[in-house]
Description:
The complex is a heterodimer of chains A (257) and B (214). By secondary structure, chain A is of the alpha/beta class. Chain A has helices at residues 48-55, 80-84, 102-112, 118-131, 147-159, 177-192, 204-210, 228-233, 238-245, and strands spanning 8-19, 22-33, 37-41, 63-68, 71-72, 87-90, 165-169, 197-200, 213-218, 221-226.
Amino acid sequence: MAELLKEELLRIEHLRKAYDNTVVLKDISLTVHKGEVIVVIGPSGCGKSTLLRCINGLEPIQGGKITLRGQEIDGNSKDIAQIRQKLGMVFQNYELFPHKTVLQNIMLAPMKVQKRPKDEVEAQAKQLLERVGLLEKKDSYPRQLSGGQKQRVAIVRALCMNPEMMLFDEVTAALDPEMVREVLDTILELAKAGGTMIIVTHEMSFAKAVSDRVLFLDGGEIVEEAVPEKFFSDPQTERAKRFLRTFEYDAVKHHDI
Amino acid sequence: MQEYLPLFADAMLLTLFIGWIGVIISVVLGLIAAFIQYFKIPVLRQIIKVYIELFRNTPLLIQLFFLYFALPKIGLSMSPQVCGALGLGLLGGSYMAEAFRSGLESVDKIQSESALSLGMTKFQALRYIILPQAISTSMPAFVANIIFLLKETSVFSAISLMDLMFTAKDLIGLYYKTAECLVMLVVFYLIILLPVSIVGSIIERRLRYASFGD
């Protein structure tokens, strides 16, 4: 792994994000290398999703700097569309385009944004759909798909742009439990294939399995950063311990029957 | 009654011609007004607001009187045809603006972000993602507005345009064939409006199916 981790892809330096007087992200610094899988966890409202939105230039930032391969990410700059092509984003509520079929959803941006030839894009789209087991749904409309299927299409749509990095924003939070698995398996596959990604999630066992590094965010700052084995078995901070405990339940049976 | 048919046919053509030019003006005005409101362009936005409220809440007859009888007093005189089309366009623009605006606003902001995140420019997001959805949402109101505007042409006779209403009133005045003329009037309005209504609902259904599936 060591040689894979050398190349630096994303760098965040002292990022500060505030809405009026509410500070959402205080002083975030983070470096992501090629091939690395970062999982961001933390209580709701801690700024996890905002962090991803800032990386994609969807939120103006009030301080610090985010760069992708040295190129600054700024939602108002002229280059932002070109940088966003390198960042595949998947949203909590899929955000497929309801007026387009699965294949059209996937092919639109590669053709209109990257100006790639239709045949080539279609071949890649079909191949990716095949990989997530949805090739037979290529002509369906999003409304005809289940939540899990929609989310896999959304992942394929982002992948078809050949991004350098994927951003997953609580992609299973809106799904029924039995559909969570199929989406997470898709992401695991990608991670296995060496994809670079930042994943915001509430699925702890998934986080443990997929990540190279876990960031625990609370109150808009990185409270703890560790490899998953260490973080989940032996968290160093009190806040992380308290957070992890919320996923455990104590038995309430007081006596045997 | 047969000998009046050509008169009614001519009147219908005039009604159709000025009516549709009015509709086209109203669509252009409505789109401009809707975009100004959607993108919250300062100053222009307030002007548009005043325009919409002014024209939506006054009768077309009075607007036409202003264009035809009052404007010449300040040296701006226009033919009745121009007044008719312009008046209809200004009235329609205020209605269309609201229809288009509500369509644009019905598309969630995150749809646009989803498009942007795929590397689209704001213009591409608008063209490929926002507008198609907005149009299908505003379609019912759009078709209703067209029908409403074409019906409003019946007040054109007040500024001496020889439209259907004018012709019917004329013939009634001349020959007292009130019932026949009124029936003709209804028939000719139906000839104008039924196709719009039918085509409109077909388009509505197709767009609805594409977007929402029911």
